[in-house]
Amino acid sequence: MIAIPADNRILYYRRDREAFGFLSHFHSSPIEIDGEIWPTVEHFYQAQKSPSHAYRAAIRAAQHPGHVKRLSAPPDAKARLASGSWFAQNGQRPRADWEDAKLEIMKRGDHAKYARYPDLAARLLATGDAELIEDSESDGFWGIGKDGGGPNWAGRVLMEVREHLRRRSS
User: At what angle do helices 153-169 and 98-116 cross, to 10 degrees?
Assistant: First the structure.
């Protein structure tokens, strides 16, 4: 039985990571999409930034999702990130429609994760109606950002997947 925090909010990036870290896109749970195996949802997601076989091979080979994020940084990212960027090192740019495509790509990755792992799906369902929040101060799109008012798309996608699972199991 999963203990839901009293405020009915699961802040799985920091506050509640120990119990709910499985919700993270960094969680080690290989997924298969279109006949390709990816070590984590993060690997799959970042790999979609380019159709380049060399880029995708570099992403797949990365041992840790944090390394994947550095490899996938756009060439014009802050110097710290751009120094590890595959795009900067290879004089290329991510796909032009990335900002329009990324949300659907993440949804696809998360759906694949919970479809492949019934134990993780059961744990996601066990969160009931709790609000799922990626309480990352450094990500103002997927998380809540520095001011806490970011759109929390990572959490919103997980709640959508949870609702999909709930409808399928009833």
Answer: 40
